[in-house]
Structure formats: C-alpha cells, structure tokens
Amino acid sequence: MIRSQRFLQAFTLAAALQILCSFASAQTLHIPPHEKYVLKNGLTVLLLEKRGVPLINFYAIVKTGAAADPAGEEGLASITAGLLRKGTKNRTAQQFSADLDYIGGTFESEAGPDFSSVSAEFLTKDLDRGVNLFADALLHPTFSKEEADKLLAQALDGVRGAKDDPQQVLGYYYDGYLYGTHPYGRPAGGDELSLTNIQRESITSFYETNYAPGNTVLAVAGEFNAAEMRPKLEDVFGAWTARSVKPALIPTASPVKTRRLLLVDKVDATQTYFALGNVGVARNDPDRVPIRVVNTIFGGRFTSELNEALRVESGYSYGASSFFDSRKAPGPFGIFSFTKNETTAPAIDKALEVLQKLHKDGVTEEQLKSAKSYIKGQFPPNIETSRQLAQIIATHEFYGLGDDEINQLEARVDAVTPEAARQVIQKHFPAENLVFVLIGKASEIGPAVKKYAEKQDARPISEPGFWPPPQKK
Amino acid sequence: MKNMWFRLAMMALFCCASLLSVPVNAQQEFPVVSRTLKNGMKVLVQTDHSIPNVALYIFYRVGSRNEGAGTTGLSHFFEHMMFNGAKKYGPGELDKVMEANGGSNNAYTTRDVTVYQDWFPRSALPLIYDIEADRIQNLSFDPQKIKSEREVVASERRLRTDNDNGGLLDEQLWATAYLAHPYQWPVVGWMSDIEHWTIDQLKHHFEMGYSPNNATMVVAGDASPEEIFQLCEKYIESIPTHAPPPPVVTVESEQLGERRLIVRKPSQLPLVLVAYHIPQTKSADFYAINVLRTVLFQGESSRMYQRLVDKDQIALDVSSSVEPAFDPTIIEIAVQPKQNVDPQKCEKAMYEEFENVRNTPVSDTELEKAKNIRLAEFYREMRTINGRANTIGTYEVFFGDYTKLFDAAKNYSAVTKADVQRVAKAYFGANNRTVATLIPENADEKAKP
Q1: Which of A166, B54, B374, B380 is placed for a possible disulfide with B221 were both Cys, Cβ 3.0 to 4.6 Å?
Q2: 3-state class of B188 per DSSP?
Q3: B439 CB within 8 Å of a chain A CB
C-alpha cells in the first residue's frame, strides 16, 4: 500500500494517516492501553506509555485545517502552522531552533484539509525541555511581521519549485479539478496568488479563532511514566486560556456526474503523470474495511490489478496504484500512474479497462484471501513506534473512531465476503463518470487524449494557481 | 537519496547509518548474534519480539561501480530481474506468493551494493527462505520479461532523472566530479545502455556478483538466532560459492581545480549542487566530517540554514548528503535558491561559511549539539525492525564489522574541535569542488541566438 501511495506526495497528510490506520490485526496485536482525560480548559489529552527506545512523541491536532482557509487566502492554515516555531513569547525563531537542535529534537507543524497538526519528538532525558519547547510554540507564537513575510516568500517559491516536479503538484490539480470551489478543492499550501493575499492580521486571527484548548487534542506517546507526565502537562497546558470555537463544517461534495479532462502543459515533460477518478468516501464510512480490501486488490499493492496491467504485463510504467484519501467529508478516490509521452493513451486505456473489469468480474475468492492476509501481515509495523501511535490515537479521536478501529480490524477484514466486495465496488468505485487530470507535454499528447471526455480544459503549468484558475483579489 | 535506485517507489527508512552515535550500553540494548555459513555468507540476527514481524535484508557487494561502458545500470536492472522468476517460483509468482502470505518486498541499488528487503509476519519465515534460496540459485532470464522490465526501468529513469531537476543535475555532478573511477556513471544507467543490455550480460552479472560469500544477511524482529540459523542450514548453506567480483582497481586522481557545469532547461527555480571529494566510509576522518556536516547543515540552527535561508534569504533550503561507500566518495550539497536569485550568490555565501570553519574552530555548544543529534538519530533508526536490519547491515558491509555500530559513541566522543577544523581545511577547499548549476530557460528564451 505504502509503496504505491508514496508516489502521491501531494495527496496531503490525510492520505498518510489513512495508511497508518487502516490495516489492523486483532489476533496478536492491540493498540497499547492508553488513557484519555480532559483538562478544565477543554484540552483533550491522550497518554500512551511505550517502552523500547527512550523517545517521547507529542502530536497535537487543532481541529481546523486548510478547508477553513478563506477563498483567495488558500494556504492560511498552513502558514499559521508553519509560523508557530518562528518566534514565541519566550524565544526568537533562531533561539527556538537552537534549543530544539541542541537536544536533537524534531518539530513539525502543518495543515491538511481537515485539521492542523503540531508534532515533536525528544529523548526521554530531555522531556522537561521538550514539553517546554512544544508548548511554547503551540501556546505562545508571536507571528512577527518579519517572520511572516519570510515564510510567505518561501512558501511562494515552494509552490513554484513544486511545479518543476509533476509528482508534487498532480494532487493539487486533481483535487481542484474534482472539487472545484468546494473546500477540498483548495490547495492546502496555497498558490502563487493566494499567498500574496495573506496578511499578518489574517494569520493572527486564524490562530486566535482556532488554536484553543477546546479545539485541540494532544497525544503523548513513548517512554515515560504517566503519573509523572500528568502534572507536567497540567502545569504547562492548564494555563492555556479557554475559548469557544465554532467547529469547522465541511459540506459533503457529490460525485461528478459526467466526464471532464484537464491537461496541464509542461513543455519539457518526457513522461505524462495522470490521475483519474471521482469523489470517494468519508473516513468513518461504514464500508471502509471492505473498501480497503477491494482497493488492495485493485490498486493497493505490487500485485494489484492496476500494477499488474500497467507495469508487470505491459511495461508502460514504473508503477500504478489507486487510493481513497478519506477525510471528514468524502475525500477523493483516484487511480494514479505515469508513462512516457508515446504511451499516454494506451496506458490510460489500460487503466480504464482494469476499472471496467473490476465492475464486470469483481474479485475472486483467491484474491480476497490473499488481500486479507496481506493487510493483516503488513499491519504490525504501522503501530511499531511511539511516533506512529501518538498520531493514530490523536487522529482516531479527531475522526470519532475508537480503538476497535485497530483492535477489531483483523476480525473485520476476515469478515469481508465476496458479496460485500461486490457491493462496495458498485457503490464506491466509479465506473463511467470520471475526472481526468494529466500533466505532460500538451503538443505531443493532446490529440490522443481528446477521446476521454467531451469537456476539456487546459492550463500551462507555469501559470499561477492550480484549478480553478485563481482570480485576482 | 538521489543515488539509490529502487525496485519500487518506496522510501523506507534508509538511514545514513554511518552517522550514528550510540550510548555506551547499546550493544546490550540491541544484541546481535552472528554466524558465517559454510559457503561464506555471514548472517546477523537481532531478535525483538515487540511485533510479530520480521525484516530480512540481503546485502550483495555489487553495484554500479562493478559495471563498465555500455553496461551502466546493469546492477540496478538485475535487481529488478531478481523478482521476475526463478525455478520454483516462476515469473510473477514471487510477489503473488509473498503477498498472499502477508509479506512484501523491495530492493535498492547503489554505486556499491545491491540490497534485497523482505518484510513479513513470522509465520512466513520458511516461505521467505525458500523464495530467497530459489532466486539466488536458479534465476531465469525470460526474454519477454527482460523486454517489459527494460521499459519499467526506463520509466523509473524518466521519473527520477529526466523529469526531476534534482535527479538530472545530480547525474551530471557525479559524471563531472569523477574522471576515472566508476562512480562517474549513474546507478540507473544511461538511457542508451538501458535500451541495449543483453541476456548474456545479465547472466555474467549474476555469476560475478551473486556468490554467497559476497553477501551478508541481516534478520531483525520476531525470530530467534537458532531458528534463523536452522533455516539457513536448510535453504542457504548448500548454495555453492564462486569467485566474488574482481576488485575495482581504478583510483580517482586528486582534483586539481574547481570544475563547473551548467544545465539549461525549462524550470521555475534554479538549483545548485556542490560536491567535495572525501575519503571512503571506513576512513578515520569519517566521524569528524560528519560532525562538521551536522554543524553546517543539520537543522534550522545550522550555520548554512541560518546564513542562506534565514539571514540572507536567498535560498529555500540547503542540505548535505553522504552515502556509505567502499571507495573515496563525495559529499553532496544541495542549495535551492529562491526564484530569480543568482545561484552564484548562494555559492558565495556558502563558501564564506566554509571559510569560517576553516579559520576558526566550531564552538563547544556546536560540538555538543552535533553529538546530541547523533544520539537521538541512533534511536530513531533503531526503533523499528526495518531500521535495525538496514543499520546493522550497513555497518557490517561498509565498516567491515557490525560491532563498529556500537563503537560509534566512542568515536564521536573522540572528535575534537581541532579535528573538525582539520577536515574542513583538508576537504572543503575550492580546488576540490565540483559545482553543478541548473539555470531556468524558458521556451521563448531558447529561440534567442
């Protein structure tokens, strides 16, 4: 699963989380025991002790993400998260980095469509300094104009640089073309125009509105003693002032009812990168387990139908895969691959053929058995580290999923019948109505891809924004 | 990790294992049991029952340095062919059987080694050994598979090199930094060589590189040394040994002046890569070079980040990498300038920072920080069975002895400020560097004379 999904770097954090959380085995593995409590200010705390190596991981979810970015200011949640470490009440950006690096710690903060996340890792012996640093960034950022300008300028060039590598931006074009003006269509990292629209006031206001204890889940996992950890957290996070936050509501997007194709022109491309699909499912969809099993067979592992057809049998591509990036509201489903310019249409034809075959023939008993064993066998390394566990318990809390998501998954996987597989194929895998997004050399591949949809759109990759083309504010 | 080539686009935990620092009692924390089989293959086992899974790595000491003109990329192509059918498990069967039993696999090739990786539940142990023994002894070369796999590798090359600015520039950097030694050509191979390998060349490569005494097997996870050694006796030990690859005798001459190259192509941002020749992994200077590298490049408090990204605001990112190597290698520095910034401005700032560390010793705090970072990274690598298998194997293969992993703490502690200054002077001078610059050129500019 991971190997094919890893191609899709642009398909956001939520996709990565899904990989971590979707496979489970109950026979021998359970998520380690952990406790949950809520501080007086509303902060939800999750503690999980894990022995093995002397590391401690912090993972905080602020329940507002890029889907809450105002139109025209895409990237606001991401910039806000990025600035947390760039100057606090107690440290300049430079001091923060010096203190963090001195103890060999790591700190990351980012925004996905559904939520923002702040994470850090420290050696157990540095716990006190670590908690202090982590809380300083989360609770006391100052958002100086100088640092905001610096980060905005970097983010802007980051978007430009990403456009030099089709793999990095295919997901943004795909989400945009699939969702249009729906919040999931917005590029989480912003674009060349939106980033120039973001003012410091918007950043501080985004922070004040959304970074509140009642809107945050904090998970801590690793080698520590919970009895000693609780007062430390109470000390630092108990002082966080309670504020009421209106929960971010994300409307449900309907699947596209027709076919359309976007061709993004990259004049020097010798290979076409393509994604095709439709709106998929939400993270808590009751069919999520049978969907996982079927998608493993269809495009979620090396011997998947897609990879067999586009790589093993034809040599069209180094890899082909399919994904459900399931989110709070239904997220995208897509088939992804790439091939040299000359074989663009044959490769897409082949992908469509595999999709039709799935609808026509379904999956065999043998495939089902194999996929179940694969999912169960590959699962344990996904809950091996405190870093993974902190992230899993926090995201489960956010999405309202319980420990059974892992503890019962083996049983749930085993329970998937051929009939259930048939039903999810019909219900969740698109057949005729598809959105196509291609990045490639338009002059060479344009004519061959006309046949896929009557409605065709085109943009040069060098033009600002993704899709829809951004309007000057 | 530009110089590693994979069967699949999976970025597992590929550490620069050689950089680690470890606590004094680490050997007891992560005990390793080793045995050398009668056919010369060394087997290392690190048992850990925290998850019911096993990571199995086989390192073959053969890579693109064992190739020649016309056959560049053969080691990597061969790596792909190792999944395409043997006697018992025919074309496509290896993957199907492995996945149906809960396992997965990958492989990577570097200039020095080819490494095969299996990740699986412990219930699949005998099967994995059966598969590995089958392909090590009885690989088949189906002409149809060679044809389609050639296309797959060409697609991989387009993905990582031809359509990736960093990959493209990296290829030219190595080709310029080396005039004589086989490190000069890309691991994936030149496209024209990819198109022309023959079955006979593949067979020859197999005979040359895949002798058991040219391999090291590392097993980490839910398996005891006894059961692994029993499986080895049953499946691996009887595989006959033969001559390992002939030694690579070519030695790169000392570089006598800066080398520069330019790539012009449509692009939004420029890119700069700078290489300095440094000794092979086994060299005593390795630890001091890594301390210097940490001070200069690691984290946002590093000197280069502070200077180029934070203060001068001329770059988005600056980083360095060194890969384990049998022969004298290069440290590769990547600078991502901001749009419309003259790349030479970035170079100038970077060279000034090098000048500073040559002239003045680094501070006590910086030295201490570097050691702390190495310690934390040791645990980051060793926290998973996959990281352990890769790290233990890398030490065994490139340092000649896995126990060097547990001596690293001592070796890092011994590094002084004077050592750091000495390696800065010895290796980071203008005459020893190669500079590759990508300059954006848009279609309309191309038309100009």
Answers
A1: B54
A2: coil
A3: no
Is B368 in the A-facing interface, judged by CB distances under 8 Å?
A: yes
- Cβ pair A438, A347 in contact under 8 A: no
Q: Which helix (H) or strand (E) holds B336?
A: strand B329-337
Size of interface A-B (CB pairs under 8 A): 199
Residue A195: give the domain boundaries.
29-237
Q: Note the maximum CA span of chain B.
A: 72
Alpha-carbon gap, residue A277 to A177, rounded angstroms: 11
Q: For residues B440 and B60, give the distance between their C-alpha atoms in angstroms, rounded to a whole number.
A: 40
Domain count, chain B: 2
pLDDT in tens, A81-124: 999 999 999 999 999 999 999 999 999 999 999 999 999 999 99
Residue A216 lies in a domain: yes
- Residue numbers of the domain that contains B101: 5-235
Q: Nearest by CB to A384, from B51, B124, B442: name it.
A: B51
* In a domain? residue A7: no
A192 shares a domain with A307:
no
CB A48 within 8 A of CB A390: yes
What are residue A44's DSSP bridge partners? Answer: A38, A217
Same domain, B279 and B416: yes
> For residue B160, which of B73, B70, B83, B276 has the smallest C-alpha distance?
B73
Tokens linked to B150: 């050639």
Tell me if chain B has a CB within 8 Å of the CB of A463: no
The encoded tokens of residue A128 equal 């006190």
Residue of A nearest to B307 (CA): A94
Structure tokens at A123: 């050696």
Pairwise CB contact (< 8 Å): A3 & B10: yes
Sheet containing B5-6, strands listed edge to edge, beginning at the edge strand earlier in sequence: B5-6, B104-109, B114-121, B53-60, B215-221, B42-47, B33-36
d(C-alpha A74, C-alpha A183), whole Å: 10
Q: What's the rounded Cα separation, in Å, for the pair B173 and B332?
A: 9
Quick one: A142 and A277 in the same domain?
Answer: no
C-beta separation of B170 from B333 below 8 A? no
Do residues B261 and A60 lie in contact, with contact meaning Cβ atoms separated by under 8 Å?
no
Q: What is the C-alpha radius of gyration for chain A, rounded to an integer number of angstroms?
A: 23
- Mutual angle of helices A200-210 and A145-162, in 10-degree steps: 100
Q: What is the pLDDT of residue A6?
A: 25
Spell out the residues 6+ positions from residue A212 whose beta carbon is closer than 8 angstroms to its own. A42, A240, A241, A242, A243, A244, A245
B94 contacts in chain A (CB < 8 Å): none
Q: What is the pLDDT of residues B346-405, one digit of tens each?
A: 999 999 999 999 999 999 999 999 999 999 999 999 999 999 999 999 999 999 999 999
Residue A387 lies in a domain: no
Name the residue among B127, B115, B445, B434 with its Cα closest to residue B259: B434
User: Is residue B339 included in any domain, yes or no?
Assistant: yes
The size of chain B, in residues, is: 449
CATH number of the CATH domain containing A37: 3.30.830.10
Q: Where are the alpha helices (DSSP H) in A180-287?
A: 194-197, 200-210, 226-237
User: How close B195 gets to chain A, by Cα (Å)?
Assistant: 13
Please give the mean pLDDT across all residues of chain A: 93
Q: Is the same domain home to B181 and B303? A: no
- According to DSSP, residue A327 is labeled B
Name, in order, each residue with C-beta under 8 angstroms of B35's C-beta and a sequence gap of 6 or more: B42, B43, B225, B229, B232
CA distance B25 to B293: 26
The 3-state DSSP class for residue B386 equals helix
Please name which of A370, A180, A375, A374 lies closest in space to residue A288, comparing C-alpha atoms.
A375
Mean pLDDT, rounded, for A459-473: 90
Residue A394 placed within a domain: no
Specify whether B225 is located in the same domain as B280: no
**Domain holding B177: CATH number?**
3.30.830.10
